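Exercise: predict the fold of this chain.
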Amino acid sequence: MDVLTERFEHERPRLRAVAYRMLGSASEADDAVQEAWLRFDRTDTTEVGNVGAWLTTVVARVCLSMLRARRNHREEPLDGRPEPGEERRDPEQEAELADSVGQALLVVLDALGPAERVAFVLHDMFAVPFDEIAPMIDKTPAATRQLASRARRRVRGGTAADADVSRRRKVVEAFLAASRGGDFEALLTLLAPDVVLHADRFVGPSAAPIVLRGVESVRKGAILASERARASELALVDGTPGLLLVRDGRLAVVLAFQVDGDRITGIEVIADPDRLRGLELAVLD
C-alpha cells in the first residue's frame, strides 16, 4: 500500500494540473484527483504498463463527466466555488493555479464543449497522442484530431497573425502599459483628440451608462482605472485585440477598441453579463 500511495503522490501534481486546466477550478480539480485515487486504490494495476497514462485516462474521464454535468446545470457556478458563507478551499492555491495557466485562457476554455476541451487540453498542453485521447471521449483518433483543431482555432483565434490585428495589438498593448503605469504622456500619444469611451451601466459606480468624450476625459478615466488595468489581460474580442478582466474565475469586464492608424478613436467597456456571454474571445500569446 505504501508503494501504491507513493506512486500516486508522485503523479498527483501532474494530475491536478491536467484536471485544473479542464475544469478551471482548484476545488473541482481536487475532487477529480481524489476520485482517481479511489479508483486506483480499488483496481489491480499490477498488469498496467504505464501507470501515469492510466491515471491520466481516469482523471480525463472524471473531468469529462463533470464538464457534461456542468453543461446540463448551467445555473450552478462554473468555477465550482462555494456560495458566500460556505467554507472555501485553499483560495491561495486557486489563485496560484489560475496565474500558472492564465485567466484569459480559462475564460476562453469555458466556451468549449466538454470533448473539445478534453482533446485540446490533453493534446496541446500535455502532449497526449490523439490515439490515446480518442477512447476517453468515445471518438476515433481522426475525429479527436478535428475536435482539438477546432478548439485550437477558437482558443487562439483564426486571425491573430493578420497584419492589421498585429498593428492593433501593438496599440492596445501600449494603452495597457500606459494605463498600468499612469503614464499621461504615453496616453496622450495613443488617444485620438476626439476619442469617445462608452461604458455600460454594469461597469459602475453609476447606475447609468457612462460616456467620456475627448482625450483629456478618457485619459483621466484610464488613469483612475489603473488598478483594473493591472489585472487585465490581452485577448481577441470578436476578432480584434482588446482587454479582459477576470474576477474570481469569472469574466467581469471587456474593453473593445476602435483603432485608426496608431490612434485609439473609441473604447467600449462591457460588463453586462448578457453581452459578455455573446462575445467571441480568444487568447493572444
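Check your answer against the key: The first helix runs from residue 2 to 23.
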